[in-house]
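Sequence and structure are no longer studied apart. As an example, we show below a sequence and the tokens encoding its fold:
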Amino acid sequence: MRVLFASSEVFPLIKTGGLADVSGALPAALAEAGADMRILLPGYPQAMDATEAKREVGSLGDPLAIGAETRLVSGKLPESGVPVWLIDCPVLFQRDGGPYQDGHGRDWPDNALRFGLLSRVAAQLCTDGSPAKWRPQILHCNDWQTGLAPAYLHAWELLARPGTVFTIHNIAYQGQFPPEMVARLGFPPEMYAMEGLEYYDSLSFLKGGLYYSDRLTTVSPRYAKEIQTPAFGCGIEGLLSRRATDLCGILNGADYGVWDPESDSHLAHPFKPGDTAGKARNKAALQEELGLAPLPQAPLMVIVSRLSDHKGMDLVLAALPAILAMGAQVALVGTGDHQLEDGFRAAAAAHPAQVAACIGYSEQLAHRMMAGGDILLMPSRFEPCGLTQFYAFRYGTVPVAHATGGLADTLVDTGYDTLMTGTANGFVFEHCNAGAFQWAVERAVALHARPDQWRKIVKACVAQDFSWGRSALRYLDLYKSLAGTGKGGGNGKGRAKA
């Protein structure tokens, strides 16, 4: 099974969030399961530098008439060795800043062209116009940045094409641009319609992927249901509900080759999962590193997250006085909304022995947070899947989380029955408000003070297995159902409307 996996970020080449983790680990698991994989990624400077065994494949021409040649470079991902193709177009990708924004947090003004090129190259590699001899049977696209690839395949009216799969990692990010970009990106005007690319008087990359792909997936079963409702569908629930038979939720996994406390090079004291003495040493090291009071009995709560209201970080700030009054400590690493960043900085300045706020992102510190923390705070208003709870499980850090998306699919709330049966692996709250969040934290702190009970919860956490192998097999089954169909369009003219 030949699969082209297109994504805007791939760990360890470039990362801003969970999409990169998925795009690095899932293709490796699919390759291990027997698929012939290629990953397609823009040639950002970091990615070009980190890719191993690079060689030029050939020219892609100037598909979007930007006045510069685009070339295809092949290489391999570090460690896994999965083949990767990089789109070498310096005028669009060779720049300082992140993949989506400049150093001041502003979206690149030419993102429509940048990710239009990513989508177009993904489609081109499925045709006779590809400079590579390898042709995919399946094109798997991820999030809005690749959403136009299935639309290009539809526009070109190919006699035969690969089956197309589009995965929604977060429906809140939709890639909306002015209508004039439709012609600029090479689409016929009739595709800019409600039954096509149009979304509330704009061109939507996301809708292109949702409308023209053969199959749609999300990253958890619960999220697949949620996004068909107005509360979670971000205005596109109509299309999704009409395509419900083509939509499924496949839970993400965790890369235990990267997230393993026993072999984790980022830790001061590597330890076996479930080793309480080893975890205590890492807790002490983390407290010292962050300048927190060296209190072994104080529950240390960690946050590894983007700082936004979507992630419930405003709820953490609202409950923080009560959390500190319980004698707990809070350590955070992340970046996001400036108001929330300032709020956590102020809390750390006012309570340096109890609060540490590391604004920015550090993969190394994230690992040490998981190893040293007792409790992980994840009060997300919505969470398509969440990967952080998987990492926390393996490191014996107990999540406190809102029952939404993948968190609801993977967490079992701690109560009398679940403690007795040994299935409790977290503290869950149903209503997403500061009071409900605070009550869940209070329950966690109360159980943390009872070591015998706490060890039962940690044991259940460590026993969780969310390795990628199971998810990869489900994707392979999906691919096999599409391979060789030669369909000319996933959604069919006049089928579903947003």
Remarks:
- The CA atoms of residues 423 and 460 lie 6 Å apart.
- The two ends are 33 Å apart (CA to CA).
- The chain is about 35% helix and 15% strand.
